[in-house]
Amino acid sequence: MSIVYASIFIVFHSKGSSLQNRIRTFSYALLFDNVQFLGEEFSERFFFYSLMKRCFGLNYVNYSGEELEKALGKGMPDYYLRHRNRIFVFECKDVQMAAKIKLSGDYETIKKTIFEKYVTNSKGHAKGVGQLANVIVEKLPSILREVDKSAPNSVIFVYPVIVYFDDCFDVEGPNYLLNKEFQRIISEKRVTADYEVKDVVMVNIEQLMRLENFFAAEKLDLAYLINSYIEYKEEFELNQVFPFNKYIFQEARKVGYELKKTRWFDEVFENLKIMDRKGL
How far apart are the C-alpha atoms of 252 and 215, rounded to whole Å? Predict the structure, then answer.
């Protein structure tokens, strides 16, 4: 789980505390990853939606999963972005891998757990890349036909993205395994010739938080990052397991990213002072 994300959640739920106590809580949260009480409603909806708006709201056509469900019913992506003929469909997963699984050292056990959380769960329900494949084949046509009606009629490039919260998925391997499984699933479905579906990429929610200023200012372009990452993977066999999350960090450094607070950090702090003055 993103520690910075956890700290923000803790601060805004510390009602009745003084500003000093909230700042102290904020600092403790940066040290201790004590976030088992985080819920889907906050993480996968409110927090994720607001982050996507800050990153891409000015320069992309964008719809939250909630907005799409109100218009078209269940089975929608968690978020939808479009820039010209490039469409991005997102699944946001605030799921954790148990410590005993992480530390088991058993490849098959770890792979099985990853697939249960990001492909198909124990009840046979599609998750993660399974959901993305279903969205692309079954839901995207209706989104373009009934909601995003201004999309061009040319070939659509579709970029499936998993946003995750557990830092254990930062390592080499998970993105490679899930993309391989996604390609198998999508190859068995009837995808319209109007779509060119790209590889699945995985990005940590905290990475998006760090880089939100760069996405908002268009110093980083999501389609370019994914396309160049795919090219990078094809250069050498070992590159195939390199995580997209690490790749975009490297690319961000090239355009001036440093480990500094984002614009929203200042907004959070100002809101804390306002809440303190109002006694909230």
Answer: 10
Q: What pTM, to 2 d.p., does this model score?
A: 0.82
pLDDT in tens, 227-276: 999 999 999 999 999 999 999 999 999 999 987 666 555 665 565 566 56
Backbone angles phi, psi at 24, to 5 degrees: -65, -40
SS3 state of residue 81 = strand
The whole-angstrom separation of Cα 21 and Cα 238 is 48
* CB contact at 8 A, 185 and 235: no
Whether 146 contacts 136, CB under 8 Å: no
How far is the C-alpha of 232 from the C-alpha of 209, rounded, in Å? 24
Residues 6+ apart with CB under 8 A from 229: 199, 201, 244, 247, 248
